[in-house]
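Exam revision sheet. Question 4 asks you to relate a sequence to its structure. Input first:
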Amino acid sequence: MRQLAEGVWQLDGRPRDGINVYLIGDVLIDAGTALDRGRILRELQGHEVTAHALTHAHPDHFGSSHAICERLGVPLWCGAADVEAVESGRMVGRGGMRLPAAKAHPVARALREGDEVAGFTVLDTPGHSPGHVSYWRESDRVLLCGDVMWGWNPFTLRGGIREPFGSFSPDPARNRESARRIADLEPALVCFGHGPALREPAKLAAAVAKLPA
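Answer key, structure tokens:
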């Protein structure tokens, strides 16, 4: 686990920066795939965790959520429009199709625009999933953006900042609106769901500027 900013840690994934999991204060953000639970729990040893929150309900981000919440005895939070997906274990795909995702788990708190999580403000950033949220700390301009934008191609583990492949987002146009919103914040540190952390806001802005209208 490495510290990226005050109270912000990135867990060590396999491969590094492939599928990212973060700890902000005492709240775990995302939980990788179902295969990641062991390494996540090992890395959390010695750290206080009082809640687990998601950026969105896709199987590479809440695959281990049920197991981790059960083991640590902590509540699960997610964006309001993703609650049904988490509690049913079925994500929303293109055309509104309900697709298998991860083991279902009850949601204790539905997150909405303006809510506070460990000193971060919840931003509604839908498109990649109906209830996708990001976490923004204005004081030092730190942003956890989930999969609104990828830091690289998560399948090749290379390339520049890009939008997710359209087949993975039920509403790509709306996701681009969310991308423009986070770029307008000019974050000093961007923590992606996939890819290394970024400390150059101009690179995010340039990538978003290339998105289709």
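Marking note for examiners. The chain is about 20% helix and 25% strand.
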